Amino acid sequence: DSTKSEIERLEGLVNNFLAYARPARPKFEKRNLNQVIQELARFLEADFRQSGVVMELALEPMLPEAALDETQFKQAVMNLLVNARQILKTGGKVLVRTRPGASGEVVLEIEDDGPGMTPDVQEKVFEVFFSSRGGGTGLGLPIARQIVERHGGTLELDSRPGRGTTFRIRIPRNRPPMPAGDGGAQDE
User: Fold this and answer.
1) Buried b (16+ CB within 10 A) or exposed e, 41-74
2) Residue 82, exposed/middle/buried by CB under 10 A (0-12, 13-18, 19+)?
3) Is the entire prediction scored with pTM above 0.70?
4) Which of 5, 165, 170, 188 is the most buried (most CB within 10 A)?
5) 170 forms bridges with which residues in the sheet?
6) What are phi and psi of 78, to 5 degrees?
7) β-strand 54-58 against 93-100: which pairing, if any?
């Protein structure tokens, strides 16, 4: 059993590394971000409940649609949510909030009431293979950032020791231009 468990762990590590090293080309479609978040919350509900961590949704009902690769975007958000759940103790809380941004973009915030991060950890948290958690691969946050940037968005971090952490994703409503060498534009 321990050998099988280790093989599964290594397989997950290799798959995460490949996802970072050779990301799939996004296939953008107009999507309701709230619906995407609700589906992901249902998927993670049992995991959060088993850990004794509460996930609360505060979704803006009038949120405009955004151009997303739903599979990739869900992976990015799941990485952030799983990281938050892993850092929290029983009784901890994660708040997932959506809202329109001041520049017309859609904004997703994932806020936890955990221990927060020191400034030196914040500087390294998006580096490949950096992990402040024992057993972490150090790929979840770099993959999340890479996916958000391929959507033409930004992934921001706001954290203070003892006061929790907020990750803020800003995504443009329209499909971003494809970078040079990425196979050109594609249909929506």
Assistant:
1) beebeeebeeeebebeeebeeebeebbbbbebbb
2) middle
3) yes
4) 165
5) 107, 154
6) -60, -40
7) parallel
